[in-house]
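Q: Could you fold this chain for me?
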Amino acid sequence: MTDPAPKTHAEASRQRKDIVLGEATDEARLIRFVAGPDGAVVPDLARKLPGRGIWVGADRDSVATAAKKGLFSRAAKAKLTAAPDLADQVEALLARRVLDGLGLARKAGGIISGYEKVVAALATGKVAWLIEASDGAEDGRRKILAAARKAATAPRLLGAFNSDELGLALGGENVIHTALLAGRGIDRWTQDVERLSGFRPLSPPEWSVNGRGESERSSAFGDQEDL
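A: Sure. Below is the predicted structure, expressed as C-alpha cells.
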C-alpha cells in the first residue's frame, strides 16, 4: 500500500522513494546510499555524505534485492557496483551506531547498569529500553524481565549484543543488565534500533516484557532528536 501524501512541507521532506518498492516512504524506515568515487555503492547511515541519495528499505531482503537486481545503477542512471555483502555492511554499521548511541547516553547520564540499580530504575517507570546481554545468565534475566513487567510503563527490550560488546560501548566490564532512560535523544536512538531489527533479531522470541518479542519489527518510528 502506498503511503498517504504528506500534508506539510516538513512531512514531505521526510518522504523518500524506496527503489525496491517504488513507493514514497518515511526516511526513518529507509537506508540512504550514495555512489562512491569509484562507483561503489556506499551506505550512508547518518545521511550526510555528498551526492544524490538512493533509498532502500531498512531490511536485509530489500538491500539484497537492490544489489542483486541492479536497482542502484537504475536509480543512479549510471553503472554502480554493489558489494555482495552489502547487507552485512549495513548491519555492522547500524550495530555500531546503536552501541555508539549507548555510549553517548552514558555520558549524558541516561544509562543505568547493574542488577539492583536497574530493578530500582524500572520501578520508577522511567526506563525506555531494557538492554540485556545476550550471554547473561537466564536466572538474572528472568528476574529483571519480571520486574520490567510490573513497571508503570513497560520498557522495550534489546538483547542483540553480548556483554563484551556492551562493556566496550559503556566503558565497563561484565555489563549484563542496563537501562536506558527516557529523555531527549531516545527517538533517534530508537530509530537506529528499529532499522537494525531489519537485519538481526532484537532479542530471542522467548524473551518478552509486554507479551510480544522484540524480534518482530515494530511499525512505530518516532520523531528524531540528537542524543
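A (continued): The chain has a mean pLDDT of 89.
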